[in-house]
Fold each of these.
Amino acid sequence: MTLIEVDSGDASAAEFVQVALPVPLARLFDYRWKEQLHPPIPGGRVEVPFGRRRLIGVVVSCSAGSTVPPGRLRSVGRAIDSRPLLPQALLSLLRWAAAYYHHPVGEVITAALPAGLRKGADAVPGQRERFTLSVDATEVLANLGRAPVQRALVERLARARTAATSEDRTADDREGDDGSLDAVDLQAISARWRASLAPLLERGAITRRLSTRLPLNRARDAGPTLAGEQRVARDALIDALGAYRAFLLNGVTGSGKTEVYLQSIRAARDRGLQTLVLVPEIALTPQLMARFSERLSGCLVSLHSGLNDGERQQGWLLAAHGHADVVIGTRSAVLVPLPRLGLVIVDEEHDGSLKQQDGFRYHARDLALMRGRDASAPVVLGSATPSLESMNNVLTGRFQELRLTERAGGASPPRLALIDIRRRALSEGLSEALVEAIATHLDDGGQAMVFINRRGFAPTLLCNDCGAAADCRACDAHMTVHAASGRLRCHHCGAERATPSRCENCGSVRLDRVGQGTERIAGALAEAFPDVPIARIDRDSTRRKGALEHELERATSGRARLLVGTQMLAKGHHFPALTLVGILDVDRGLFGTDFRALEQMGQLVVQVAGRAGREQRQGEVLIQTRHPDNPMLQTLVGQGYGAFAQVVLEERRIAEWPPFSHVALVRTDAPAPERALDALQSIADFLDHDLAIRGAVEAVQLLGPAPAPMERLGGRFRARLLLQAHSRRALHETLTRLVSVIDELDRVRTVRWSIDVDPVDLF
Ligand code: ADP
Ligand code: ZN
Ligand code: ZN
């Protein structure tokens, strides 16, 4: 399998190459090409001298001349690849993205390679591990005790062995016919499979060997027959194969979007095309991967931050060499080379985690659209709660909308209702009405979930005598009380200390824990329903190895009948028995300062609500609020996300926020508040002046500089300046001019700065 061909016509005559290096400078570097090397290969790696170091970089282009004075030009030390590692189209996209997001081009291009290749490792897919169950399954299982991941691994390997020896298997010769599985299969069971496997390997219950053959998966299940709307959507996607086109798959929660993806992927694979699937959460990839490997034959690769460097490089090379039929990954997978790319899927396209929040601040959804265009492939953005950007792209005709309006398999949509908690006594944040509803659902054999997007016991420790709260010493934030550990923790910088028994300000012992978090709610529910098993799912309760899998398993199997959790519970999960969802802290989202606050509140409510009643029984969703008359909340609850989104979109239009304008943020931070603000002021002064001399004062509005809403974080003070423009080009040009001088601006030199184009939040 060859990678994309490059035009080496003039490369053989080239004397100079332009190299991308992992340094924070917005340029490429010229080097002299040595004659004794083969002709330079754009997209291939080279080792070059840089200052006193030697760096590994990527050749971006070749030329017959250089503007660098001959005396200062150095020579390439070594050419590493004899074939391009990054194909031409991807290199162009990376250069475009570096310019668009105003991030140093060398960092963008080198960061597209997995760590091993960045350090110069061989770019050939090496040997892959295969695992086989070598003893009797029942015997191993009997000795396992309560080890859910190990149990699942053994069961999975036992099934593979049975399948391999069964009569009706097809005759094709392939890896896995010996009943072995590879890392991708086991990864699908749990992100922590390797640690769980270790003792089993040691005991000899499972054996491991290395193989050079392709890891091929075989589907074990054909899946359900698609319903009418699903078929229409699938057929539209299959018809579109072969050309770029953008679709919004707007389907209510549980409407069977994943089934539409699966059948479209199968069609793409049958035509020899690769599919790229982007998903937002790490926690979601193993589950989705399990479903994909159940249903798709071929070479499946998953790429996410839970992999070690070796696994990641393996997957990357399988994709880049065109072996992988499907690549499922989080954000950064959008930058993987895919020579046969024919279909791009972005699941939960509204999710903010698709935007990188530091360093190279790209939006994976937007780059996915570019990938599709470059590869002449359709791109499907799927969601039950589409982003307003995508809704608007449907309205303007840039995207074609495909709708799934009904839940699959006959389940009905959940019923939403508000609980007015004004002037009502709440017990630990829970209204009587909600507690009664929980009791009813439990009595009927259902499962109930309480959602609160705050972990810990209480968000504030307040003194009853002087009114002082226990604050973080490094942030403008209260410390959160964690009761089980007896610690106060800052959820912004991670600082912690023991919970004091006396007020740190006045010494009083009359301290109150004010407000609720998951820990407190779980405790209150345990008291109200003493015999009911509870699963609590948040970052604290799932930190221990295997804990998340364990809790999710208890929730899915129905062994835990009460679930309490943060947004970790909101996305994608399918809990068959869940019939009631209670949402506690919706009011915070109603009055957020960020222009996206309302949109995000609506998405979260609908996603959380979507966990209820996904099978036979009707789901009910109760939302506690002190603002039951709020028109936005009324619209959301009464008319659903579509109507809600239309109103929010209209507000955005009037206020001229994205998608009706384009924004970028310049952020600074420094150890002293005035320095961050001063630096931004000098940036604003430059911009004012620059816009004036270009006659562009009208084209780009500056808002700020102003301190960030939470000014102090981790001991540094933060400020921000917002640039807003109607024309993307005007905004871009202004930022380009700023970046070209920013390091020379006096007061900027002593602060940290960053630029965020199309920010998802304004903090
Ligand atoms: P979504 O991705 O829209 O949330 P899923 O694809 O996960 O929805 O489907 C929800 C559930 O409905 C899954 O258990 C799935 O297997 C089932 N399902 C999907 N499509 C069908 C269908 N056509 N017939 C029967 N069950 C279906
Ligand atoms: Zn006090
Ligand atoms: Zn802090």
Note: The mean pLDDT is 90.
Amino acid sequence: MAGTFTFHVVSPEGDVLKEEVEFVVLPGIDGELGILPNHAPLIAALETGVITYTVNGKKKKAAISGGFVEVSENKATVLADTAEVAEAIDVERALAAKERAEKRLAQKSPDTDMKRAEYAFRRAIARLNAADGKNL
Ligand code: ATP
């Protein structure tokens, strides 16, 4: 029988979301991590990417940049470096960030911190995907 569990996402800025959900898919560092009610206890590191979570049969999305998840006692808690639910994502801002990062990556200047540009690019892509990938 289908049940629910509490899904909580926290960033340094505070609570990003807290909902009763049926299913969550997270971007684990070793691949997608699906969590159903009554999942076994777990701690796992997360990649920058898109979270999907199902509330009353409706799929919702959020973006996160790194962090980890803890699952215990029918509750999943994500602690993320940054996190935004789809409705809170400023698509224009993410597009501008993506373009900036792309330019830096293309320039390959010795003054460019390539890792930093790469991470900024991934954060922007995650946000655009969570906000439905429009204009990608
Ligand atoms: P930017 O260059 O646009 O600031 P960034 O990837 O460097 O993007 P972060 O350092 O990851 O930004 O995030 C800083 C704060 O701004 C975080 O609280 C994050 O949730 C928020 N944020 C960043 N980009 C967006 C966006 N497109 N829409 C909504 N919130 C955003």
Note: Residues 39 and 74 are 7 Å apart (CA to CA).
